[in-house]
């Protein structure tokens, strides 16, 4: 297993965020499959999105899956789920790595792997510039 996360240089202003927020794009390559994840920061919180798709991402750590959830206003002014799909090939560990990079303002590549000495299958290690780190303090 190998996950590579790098913040792309561009900050993208979007209509959804308006003037009170920012959006940063991260390239995530997990086991050879590439995703572009937007980390949107607003005055009232944050959200994660797959570039070019509606909805936001959330993780199910019990099943180690990432879901894309699309909500819509229903006829009675309530909310309804328009879509809730699993993003195949993207794990909750990738999302945790993106959150770590955003919160720590990390611009160097983050590598999460179980292929290096000292790591075991199911217990990957995290590296930045070949230095081992812990994905902690991201709340």
Question: What characteristics describe this protein?
Answer:
mainly beta; 9% helix
What does this structure look like?
With 139 residues, this protein is mainly β. It has a domain at 2-53 and 91-133. Helix content is 9%, strand content 49%. It has one helix and ten strands. The protein has one helix spanning 92-103, and strands at residues 2-11, 22-30, 33-42, 45-50, 56-60, 65-73, 79-86, 110-113, 125-128, 131-133. The strands form two sheets. The chain has a seven-stranded antiparallel β-sheet, covered by helices on one side. Strands 5-6-7 form a three-stranded antiparallel β-sheet, with no helix packed on it. A hairpin with a 5-residue loop joins strand 6 and strand 7. The longest helix has 12 residues, at 92-103. The protein is globular and about 55 Å long. It starts with a strand and ends in a 6-residue tail after the last strand.
